[in-house]
Write a structure and sequence with these properties.
By secondary structure, this protein is of the alpha/beta class. The chain folds into two domains: 344 residues, ABC transporter type 1, transmembrane domain (ABC transporter transmembrane region fold), CATH 1.20.1560.10; 219 residues, Rossmann fold. Helices cover 63% and strands 10% of the residues. The chain has a ten-stranded mixed beta sheet with strand order 5-4-1-2-10-9-3-8-7-6, with helices on both faces. The chain binds adenosine-5'-triphosphate (ATP). The site of adenosine-5'-triphosphate has 15 residues, from helix 6, strand 2 and helix 11.
């Protein structure tokens, strides 16, 4: 079985992520004042449970003793009998009825407390998971673009879905572990009430079970780490499978695609089977210890300590309840250890994102401080974009010595594939910050502090259209544009999308299902172009945003753009001649170097 990540799906080093202590601290920070109330209700439920058990002693002893008051009765039974005689319950039947009423009252109270406990625990555990998920989303959304770009989609998907799901499991194990553990303590306390010696014997046996659990938990934690890697691989292969479906069908390579996918899930399955085997072994060991405990209680209780019949019955009930409780607690500890690597993995990525943010990322919620002057030219001087490679080295992706675009200019950005065109326009969009040199508009230079203001006046249409499950109107106004129907239709007409929306039964209010999957690639691009046109901006960037359109359509769209350009600078990355023909200025990017060529 593979034990390392392999070159294709290595993720962040989970070992740097977090410990169990970090998880407890995170829960404490989340729950804050609620922890005391939650622990109190868990304890109250356990106390009521054990009180019910201890109450069995007088019930059983009263029955065993019958009317002959001299038969063996413990101090507890004598005390309760004295109380009942004081209120006039003298016969065995009357005392049993009295005890029965107390018992039923206890059961009713316990039911109310249990219900409350379960609700509180569910609210707390689900709330905690939601908090972790939201924090992760927020950190990722506010991370710098080059940092986000470093992660593979499968890695992020795996963290947001599989690992968060496993963390949910871990929290469930933890909360049920606490409940069952506290209950176990209560049972143990009941055993001490019946017989201190037997209580100590049970404590010793629980300690032996704990040692077994600790050993197996270590192994389960290792297995959990391997499962992390395997899950990453499954997610990677799942995205590859879905992305590659069309190409595979065209090349009749469905079997090859399926074979790769089957290979990826086999390892995760193997690890899951190994874990179940480990868990089964631990469960068997504890059950064996519990049987020994039951035998010991019987022999010691009857032969050595000399417990009476009632006490023996209650001890047997305690051991019978304690045994499955112990199995659940200790296998829960093991499951927690198995699921912990998911939390470690989430924290490892969060740590990377936080470190990146601390070294100059986007500051969330920061208000734009002024805006770049629209009547000034857009300029780049001796500028370069660098990224950090996985090996930690700085790589220069693109550089430019001197670029200047006057307001009202349509600029074509051309050059071979992989030359750095997208990186260059991402720099002007503020997605990268200059590593050297300067990007500016008049006196307004782009840097970490001015970036929000800069980006408030940029509209960017990427090659891959982004359409979400909302109406056409919601998609066009995303994220925060306010526009009336007339403005929406005008933008749609300029983007050549008017007829697409006019055909839809509900027009602007038609829901876009499945991210607009039923539209063609070119149709989705046209809608996204209309969205980009609606955003108030002095710099419009189209990064191959018309690549899926036919030449005739593209020509008419670029013609209209040129005509309505106003004061805007339009940067258009394209491999098409249409863009070259309509451009006022041309930039060529070759081998990471951008120059003016016309
Ligand atoms: N985060 C990164 N780390 C390392 N290399 C990167 C990173 N981002 C981009 N690159 C590399 O930088 C080069 C320029 O990429 P870019 O996307 O700007 O090219 P492009 O000219 O737009 O290509 P195309 O026309 O094919 O879209 C490519 O070789 C790409 O692999």
């Amino acid at each position: 079985m593979r034990s390392d990540a392999g070159p294709h799906y290595a993720g962040p080093n989970d070992a740097d992520g977090a410990s169990f202590g970090d998880l407890l601290q995170a829960i404490r920070a989340y729950a804050a004042d609620g922890i005391f109330g939650t622990l109190s209700i868990i304890t109250l439920a356990a106390v009521l449970e054990s009180a019910g058990l201890v109450l069995l002693v007088p019930v059983a002893e009263t029955i065993f003793a019958g009317e002959g008051k001299g038969a063996a009765r413990s101090g507890l039974t004598m005390q309760i009998a004295a109380w009942m005689e004081a209120v006039g319950l003298n016969s065995v039947l009357q005392q049993l009825a009295g005890l029965g009423v107390i018992f039923i009252a206890l059961v009713a109270l316990r039911a109310v407390v249990l219900l409350r406990r379960d609700i509180v625990l569910m609210q707390m555990s689900q709330g905690f998971i939601d908090r972790v998920r939201l924090d992760f989303f927020s950190l990722l959304a506010h991370a710098d673009w080059p940092v986000i770009k470093r992660y593979r989609k499968a890695e992020l998907l795996n963290t947001m879905t599989t690992n968060v799901g496993r963390l949910g499991q871990a929290i469930r194990f933890l909360s049920s572990g606490i409940v069952v553990g506290v209950l176990g303590l209560a049972y143990l306390a009941s055993a001490f009430v019946v017989s201190v010696a037997l209580g100590l014997a049970l404590l010793g046996l629980i300690a032996i079970g704990g040692v077994f659990a600790a050993i197996w938990s270590r192994r389960s934690h290792r297995l959990g780490r391997q499962l992390n890697q395997a899950n990453r691989f499954v997610m990677h292969e799942t995205t590859t499978f879905l992305d590659g479906m069309k190409a595979a069908k065209a090349a009749r390579a469905e079997d090859e695609l399926s074979r790769r996918f089957a290979g990826s899930i086999a390892e995760a399955r193997l690890i899951s089977v190994q874990f179940v085997t480990q868990q089964g072994r631990l469960r068997n060991s504890i059950q064996f210890i519990a049987s020994v405990a039951a035998l010991l209680v019987l022999l010691l209780g009857y032969g050595v300590i000399g417990l009476n019949g009632g006490e023996l019955v209650v001890m047997a009930a305690i051991v019978m309840r304690l045994a499955p409780n112990l199995v659940t607690t200790l296998t829960g500890v093991q499951s927690l250890a198995h699921a912990m690597p998911a939390f470690e993995s989430i924290r490892a990525i969060e740590g990377e994102l936080r470190r990146a943010k601390a070294s100059g990322g986007i500051v969330p919620g920061r208000e734009p401080s002024g805006e770049p002057p629209a009547d000034q030219p857009l300029e780049a001087k001796a500028v370069s974009v660098e990224v950090n490679s996985l090996a930690g080295e700085n790589i220069t992706l693109v550089r430019a010595d001197d670029l200047l675009f006057a307001p009202g200019t349509l600029v074509h950005v051309g050059g071979p594939s992989g030359a750095g065109k997208s990186t260059l326009v991402e720099l002007f969009a503020g997605l990268h910050l200059p590593a050297q040199g300067m990007v500016s508009r008049g006196a307004y230079a782009l840097d970490a502090a001015s970036r929000p203001g800069w980006q408030a006046r940029v509209s960017f249409a990427p090659q891959e259209p982004f359409i979400f499950d909302g109406t056409v109107r919601e998609n066009l106004c995303w994220p925060n544009v306010e526009a009336d129907d007339q403005q929406l239709w005008a933008a749609l007409e300029t983007a050549g999308a008017g007829d697409i929306v006019a055909r839809l039964p509900a027009g602007l209010d038609e829901p876009m299902l499945d991210g607009g999957a039923r539209l063609s690639g070119g149709e989705r691009q046209r809608l996204c172009l209309a969205r980009a046109l609606l955003r108030p901006a002095d710099l419009l960037i189209l990064d191959e945003a018309t690549s899926a359109m036919d030449a005739e359509l593209e020509r008419s769209i670029i013609g209209r753009l040129r005509q309505d350009i106003g004061n805007r600078v339009v940067l258009m990355v394209s491999h098409s001649l249409n863009a070259v023909m309509h451009a006022d200025q041309r930039i060529e990017v070759t081998g990471g170097h951008a120059r003016v060529v016309g």
